Amino acid sequence: MARPTTPGPARGRLVDEAAAATRGQGGHALGRSRDPTSGTAWDIPDAAREAREGSVTRISITVDGETYEHDVEPRTLLVHHLRETCGRTGTNVGCDTSNCGACTVHVGGTSVKSCTILAVQADGEQITTIQGMATRAPGARDETEGWHPLQKAFHVEHGLQCGFCTPGMIMASAALLAENDDPSETDVRQGLEGNLCRCTGYVNIVKAVQRAAAEMRGEPMTTNPEEGTMGEADVTERAGDADKLQDLEVAP
What we know:
This protein is an alpha+beta fold. It has helices at 17-25, 46-53, 78-84, 149-156, 166-179, 185-191, 203-216, 239-247, and strands spanning 14-15, 31-34, 41-44, 57-63, 66-72, 104-107, 110-113, 126-128. It is built from 8 helices and 8 strands. The strands form 2 sheets. The chain has a 5-stranded mixed beta sheet, with helices on both faces. A 3-stranded antiparallel beta sheet has the order 1-3-2. A hairpin with a 2-residue loop joins strand 4 and strand 5. The two termini are 50 Å apart.
């Protein structure tokens, strides 16, 4: 800002510290800037202060069954709002370029990469994150109790290694199975083409999705050692996977 040379409403009125404090006591404290050369402070008009600070928009969203109302900056991405304001840290930020799909959530029942839309665009929407996929009764002893069939299947089929892409994979898979309850391997691979995994090579992810689909259709989950498919008794033996899936926090 150029240094003001004369008092005037158009450029801000020069004030000393005492005068500024007096005005603040009157119930309408103005923002204040300081001349970098002289050190003199002057009032900043309301409109200029609001422009400098940025505007906010009040939004209301329902996340995993819980309603949140907050003031957000128009530039805030939905993924950051979910993580930093709503506490849904199970939704990961991966590439920041909308390529990896780690941030996938459901908005109004549709699978969406939450780094591609603004929080204000989700105003009034029902949002489901990975943390809303499972429900667990208080005091449950079995750590897998209440898991969604997809979460259990990814665990049993070892459909994860580092686990970073898993939230997005599960959310995208859930959207796929909502449209196709008996997908072929090709269907699964095409349905998850927007989600990247740098660890598994996708083979076990495909098996996991098909296993979950079978369970959701009511078919028995059987053991097939030749294909590497594990039975229900093996679930608790995969402690490493359980820890990773447990990190995909469950909403209360």
